[in-house]
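Quick one:
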Amino acid sequence: QVHLVESGGGSVQAGGSLRLSCVVFGYTHCTYGMSWYRQAPGKEREFVSGFDHYGTTSYVDSVKGRFTISLDNAKNTVYLQMNSLKPEDTAMYYCKSPCGWGQGTQVTVSS
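Output:
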């Protein structure tokens, strides 16, 4: 059975940084094509960043230049480095793999 466990969320002021981590426990091939999504209260879940099966990264326009996704295959972990955070980045952040979703980690950015 595969489990995805996120961590690294928290509360920061605008302009601050956080690094989210998502560890994949179980089938290691579940790290291919991983991505991050977020969902703010009252809004639909949206794609934030991810890898395609060739390892190419993509980002939603609102985070380009501020967020960076990376993968450590040795640790079965995907990261999301978030810099220059804005209040509109406040949301529950989820990692997603072909094998399922994590439980989410809350990010709150105050102005």
